[in-house]
Amino acid sequence: MTPEGETQKPAGRFSLLGQLWFQVLAGTLLGILLGHFAPATAVAMKPFGDAFIKMIRMMIGPIIFVTVVHGIAGMNDMKSVGRVALKSIIYFEAITILALIFGLIAVDLWRPGEGMNIDAAAIDTASIKTYLATAHDQSISSYFLDIIPDTFASALTEGHVLQVLFISVLFGIAIAAIGERGRPVFQVIESASQGFFKIIGYIMYFAPLGAFGAIAFTVGQFGTASLWSLGELIIEFFVVCALFTTIVLGSVAHWCGVSLWRLLGYLWDEIVIVAATTSTETVLPRLIQKMRKAGCEESVVGFVIPAGYSFNLDGTCLYLTTVAVFLAQATNTHLTFWHELGLIAVLLLTSKGAAGIAGAAFVVLAATLNTTGTIPVASIALILGIHRILAEGLTFVNLIGNALATVVVAKWEGKLDEQLLATTIGNGRLRARHQIPAAAL
C-alpha cells in the first residue's frame, strides 16, 4: 500500500493488491453489491464511512496550519504572500465564471427536465426541511464573518478551512516578522508537519473500509429506483463534468505544461477515494503533499489548496447551474435570458458558501433558489435521492480543478520547479526545455 502518496510498484503477483486505489475500488464494489442485495445491512455500514471521513477531518486543521505557517515563515519577501492571494482569487473567479456558463449552456441544450411536468405545489418537502432551514441561515455578511474564528484554538478544533487559513496566514507572517526569535518555532512547525503527514499515512490504511461503508449506505438507502427515474439528469451531468474537465481544465493544463492524463494518473488514488466517499476533504492532506512533490512551492500549495476548497469549486458550479435549470424545466418554470444571467450572478456569491456545511452543494442550491425567487425551492426534493450520485462527479472536478489551480498560481508567481513538474505530470514541453544536450554527455 502507498498511504503517503508515493508511487510504488513492487514486483510480484500481489503488486496490484497492494495499490491503494485497487483496495478502495474493491471496497467500493463490495459496498455496491451489499447495498443492492442486502439494503438494511448496507445502511448499517454507514459508521465505517463516517469514521474514515472524521479521522481525515480531524487532521485537516493541523495540516493546513503547519503547511501554511511553514511556507510563509520560510519566505524572504512578505509581499509575495499578497501576490499569491491576489493571483489565486483572480484565477478562482475566472474559472468559476467559465464553469457556471459551461454548465448553463449544456443544460439548456440537453434539456433533461423537459416533459416531466412536475407540479411544485404537490411536492412533499418533509425530507428537505433541514436543508431549507440551513439555507435560510446563510447570508453574505455571515459568510464573511464566519471566516474569523471565535478563538485562535477554535479554528483548529471546529474544522472550518477558511478559519484555519486565516489564522495560519497571520501566524506565518508574525513568525517571519520577528526574525531569528521565531526560528525555534519554525523548526517545531517543520517537525510537526512531518509527524502530521505520517498520521495521514496511517489513516489511509482505513480508506478501503471507509469507501465500503460510504457507498454501501448510499446504495442501500436510496436504492436504484431513483437512478432510473432521473437517469437523464445523471447522464447529462456526468457528460458535462467529463467535457468540462477535458476542454476547459485540459486547456489550462496544456498552458501550464501539464499532461491532463498524467495528472489523472498521478492523482488516481485520490480520485478513487473521492468517488467512493463523495468528499474532497478526505484527500486534502494528500493533495497538499502531492502538489509539493510535483514541483509547486510549499507557500503556494499551502494557500491555494485550502482557499480553493471555498473559492475554486468548479464541479460544484457545474452542479448548481445544471440542477437549478433542470428543476426549472421539470416544473415548467420559464427562464428568460435575464433570469439565467441573474442566476449566474447569484451563484458567483452563493457558490463560495459551499464549504464547511453538511450537504454543502445541496444547501447552496436551496439558498440560491430562495434568493432568485424564480424556481420553486420545494422542487429540490426531486433530486434528494440522487444528490450523492451527482456529488461523485462534482467532487472529481473540484479535485482536478484545485490541483491545476496550484500549478497555475505557482507558475504565475515563478515558484514552480519546472524540471520536477516535467518528470511527474509534465506534457513533454517542459522536459524538452531542460534536456541536457547530447554533446555534453
TrEMBL record:
<keyword id="KW-0813">Transport</keyword>
<keyword id="KW-0769">Symport</keyword>
<feature type="transmembrane region" description="Helical">
    <location>
        <begin position="373"/>
        <end position="391"/>
    </location>
</feature>
<feature type="transmembrane region" description="Helical">
    <location>
        <begin position="51"/>
        <end position="72"/>
    </location>
</feature>
<keyword id="KW-0812">Transmembrane</keyword>
<dbReference type="InterPro" id="IPR036458">
    <property type="entry name" value="Na:dicarbo_symporter_sf"/>
</dbReference>
<dbReference type="Pfam" id="PF00375">
    <property type="entry name" value="SDF"/>
</dbReference>
<keyword id="KW-1133">Transmembrane helix</keyword>
<keyword id="KW-0614">Plasmid</keyword>
<feature type="transmembrane region" description="Helical">
    <location>
        <begin position="234"/>
        <end position="256"/>
    </location>
</feature>
<feature type="transmembrane region" description="Helical">
    <location>
        <begin position="199"/>
        <end position="222"/>
    </location>
</feature>
<protein>
    <submittedName>
        <fullName>C4-dicarboxylate transporter DctA</fullName>
    </submittedName>
</protein>
<feature type="transmembrane region" description="Helical">
    <location>
        <begin position="20"/>
        <end position="39"/>
    </location>
</feature>
<keyword id="KW-0472">Membrane</keyword>
<dbReference type="InterPro" id="IPR001991">
    <property type="entry name" value="Na-dicarboxylate_symporter"/>
</dbReference>
<feature type="transmembrane region" description="Helical">
    <location>
        <begin position="341"/>
        <end position="367"/>
    </location>
</feature>
<feature type="transmembrane region" description="Helical">
    <location>
        <begin position="84"/>
        <end position="107"/>
    </location>
</feature>
<feature type="transmembrane region" description="Helical">
    <location>
        <begin position="160"/>
        <end position="178"/>
    </location>
</feature>
<dbReference type="InterPro" id="IPR018107">
    <property type="entry name" value="Na-dicarboxylate_symporter_CS"/>
</dbReference>
